[in-house]
Design a protein that fits this description.
Elements lengths: L1 H41 L10 E4 L5 E6 L4 H9 L5 H11 L21 E4 L5 H5 L3 E3 L15 E7 L2 E9 L4 E5 L13 H10 L2
Antiparallel strand pairs: 1-4, 2-3, 2-5, 5-6, 6-7
């Protein structure tokens, strides 16, 4: 009788030990699964930036585009010259200075082709793309360049032949000088709009 009890006690202990081991391993797996779930739930969800648009810069029906091919060295020589002619001074003012100062200052346009600019007219089918760029918008990141701009491209916005807006663009430095609009132009050209505008102009 004593021998039988010893065997029963041993078997009971072994069974208890086996159950304890099984529960231990099951218990270890459960926290690991919970940990993974917590990591997945805490992982930030990446959201695509969607810009908000405001009003267009200009209400127009035609855009004249003027472009000049001139390298930086030629501009520096022109800037360092002490005996500039009126023609060269006007050319320099247009290329590197804030000319025109306002929308009433349009006299210089008559001389653009005389000082080396070539004129073309933006095609009607490209105006929609222009509107997507010359519009108030929020941006994901505002990047500014530290270089000195050379405004080789000028866009003249017209409504019924009247000049209502002017935009000078430096595609190298991603800078602009815009007059004739009450819209907020602070974010102009950001989020890849300078390359988009250049593409529109080049395919015109």
């Amino acid at each position: 009788m004593i021998k039988l009890r010893w065997k029963d006690d041993t078997a009971l202990k072994l069974r208890f030990l086996l159950l304890t081991i099984i529960y231990f391993f099951l218990g270890c797996k459960k926290p690991e699964h919970s940990s993974i779930n917590r990591q997945q739930s805490n992982k930030p969800v990446e959201q695509k930036f969607i810009p908000k648009h405001g009003k267009l810069y200009f209400d127009y029906d035609v855009i004249d585009h003027y472009h000049i091919s001139i390298d930086e060295n030629a501009v520096m020589i022109l800037d360092s010259s002490q005996n500039r002619s009126k023609k060269d001074q006007l050319k320099l003012d247009i290329l590197i200075n804030k000319t025109p100062k306002d929308i009433n200052d349009t006299e210089f346009i008559k001389s653009l082709e005389k000082i080396g600019f070539k004129k073309s007219v933006i095609k009607t089918q490209n105006l929609k793309k222009i509107n997507e760029i010359f519009i108030e918008k929020t941006v994901s990141e505002n990047i500014e360049y530290a270089c000195v701009p050379i405004y080789r491209d000028i866009l003249i916005f017209k409504k019924q032949k009247a000049i209502i807006g002017i935009a000078k663009i430096c595609f190298d430095c991603h800078q602009k000088h815009i007059v004739g609009t009450n819209a907020n132009t602070e974010n102009f050209g950001q989020d890849g709009d300078y390359p988009k505008l250049l593409q529109v102009i080049n395919t015109n």
